[in-house]
Specification:
single chain; mainly alpha
Length: 66
């Protein structure tokens, strides 16, 4: 029986930390794609509609020219 200092399946904490950080970054990326991007699109649509509403109301305040 061999009782060496290191087992062949020994994984250093550096590599374990690397894989954990890589997995966490993947989860964050998935969260941004599934939640963040639709929110940004909704905000753009709301801003576009609110700008159209303000331009419509400003035209109503001015007298009509024929």
């Amino acid at each position: 029986m061999s009782t060496g200092r290191f087992d062949q399946r020994h994984e250093t904490p550096k590599w374990r930390t690397f894989w954990l950080l890589l997995g966490f970054a993947g989860l964050v990326a998935i969260g941004i794609v599934t939640v963040g991007l639709p929110e940004l699109e909704d905000q753009r649509e709301e801003q576009g509609s609110s700008q159209a509403e303000t331009s419509d109301t400003s035209n109503l305040d001015e007298p009509l020219q024929e």
